[in-house]
Design a protein that fits this description.
This protein is of the alpha/beta class. The chain has one domain (about 40-190): Rossmann fold, CATH 3.40.50. The protein has helices at about 10-15, 50-65, 90-100, 125-130, 170-190, and strands at about 40-45, 70-75, 105-110, 145-155, 155-165.
Length: about 190
């Protein structure tokens, strides 16, 4: 008759402590890359000064147009000095729709550091236009700037993301980095394929 091995209480404790442990670190979920397939877009800049707003709207409009997207700056729709919040009114939305625009793109500066992240909050167009935070395009002590892009269709947010531009030293370098970084985003996921 074979004898069964005896297990002492110390061995039982050691074997129990060697059981697989659950990892305490949570794995980051991979971002799902989606294309928003822009075709006809109204570009709305929310900047501190009219010059900055004009620069960003025209720059982004030209970049989108070069990738085959029909883009219109909000300055072509609004009267000089008008508040961008009026774009949420039915009458102006009808004017914009008559131009063939189906997507609104709001561009705003959200800060001058690298820590800003996209808000998960899905706002409607009127709320997003009301929440404008106005910063100048370039700040002397800043080394980076974070631009937030929110895209709206039928007054609902369909896409939102942050584009961070680093190594800035002047207003011109901000626009140069903006063209480079945003140009990549347009090619990869914004323009219709």
């Amino acid at each position: 008759m074979a004898q069964e091995p005896t297990v002492t209480s110390t061995e039982a404790t050691n074997s129990a402590s060697k059981s697989p442990k659950k990892s305490k670190k949570k794995k980051k979920e991979k971002k799902v890359k989606t294309s928003i397939s822009l075709q006809n877009t109204l570009v709305i800049g929310q900047m501190d000064t009219p010059e900055d707003r004009y620069s960003i709207e025209i720059t982004l409009t030209e970049m989108l147009a070069s990738k085959g997207v029909k883009a219109v700056p909000s300055l072509n729709v609004l009267k000089l000095g008008s508040d961008a919040r009026s774009l949420a009114t039915d009458s102006l939305q009808k004017v914009v729709a008559a131009k063939g625009v189906d997507t609104y793109c709001i561009v705003a500066i959200r800060g001058f550091d690298r820590k800003y992240t996209v808000s998960n909050k899905s706002d409607d167009l009127a709320t997003a236009l009301d929440q404008a935070s106005f910063f100048e395009l370039y700040r002397t002590d800043a080394v980076s700037v974070s631009f937030q892009f929110k895209f709206f269709r039928d007054n609902k947010c369909v896409h939102s993301e942050i584009v961070k531009c680093g190594n800035i030293g002047s207003r011109e370098s901000v626009l140069k980095r903006f063209r480079k970084k945003v140009g990549k985003r347009i090619r990869k996921s914004w323009a219709k394929r």
